Amino acid sequence: MLDPLKQTKVYGKIPIKEHFQLKETIVTIAANNPAHIEVAKKSIRTHRAALETYILSDSYFQFTLEPYECPKIAPEVVKRMVKAGNMMGVGPMSAVAGTISALAVEAMVEAGAKYAIVDNGGDIALINDQPIVIGIYSGQSPIKNLGLVLKPRNSITGVCTSAGTVGPSISFGAADAASVFSDNVSLADAAATSLGNEVGIGKESVKASFNSVKGIPGIKGAIVIQGEYVGMWGNIPKITQVAVKYECITKA
Known about the structure:
Blueprint lengths: L7 E4 L4 E7 L2 E7 L2 H24 L2 H4 L12 H13 L7 H15 L5 E5 L2 E5 L4 E5 L9 E5 L6 E6 L14 E6 L2 H14 L4 H7 L9 E8 L2 E6 L3 E4 L11
Antiparallel strand pairs: 1-6, 2-3, 3-4, 4-5, 5-8, 6-7, 7-12, 8-9, 9-10, 10-11
């Protein structure tokens, strides 16, 4: 299913920010130029329409939780979702939000944007020419106000989050937040789902859950919050404190 609510929200000095909803796709778009926001919205409309048309031809695509064989004639949004899901051993819809975000930011960059953020219910694609902070919302966990400082960069990257205790997304785990970092935003989204599925209760389960993302080409690092425990693996941004407010999360 399309997931309008996960756990990550961009904070910081944002010149222009707009909330945009197209059916189940609910995003926050940030940019320095209002024209770039319109470009992102056009991209979301285009690729969501292509995805909906494809689903009409094969409803199994929408519901399978397992790897999927993709036809060569599938639209770009479908191909990216399938490739990411197959890499992680999960269904293609696990990567839908991150893929839509990535395609929108790519369109913004093609239009000249150097600062562009699309937060699709916690699956974030971004390029930033100034430092920004991303806060991770962790529900009822006592570990709160965790922020990640992202340095300026001239290429697109992704921060995607899944959870079993917050939001309506399908997860078979107990994570309050499972975040993955990758320059392949579709992969980050699918990997966050896979990681979140592996998180059980307790310190040892949090530690073991990272085995699901270790060794996957393109994944930089990950963070898991479960109850009173937090685990980190790989190359992650600098940690800071930030006021993470539920009402600021991208949702309906």
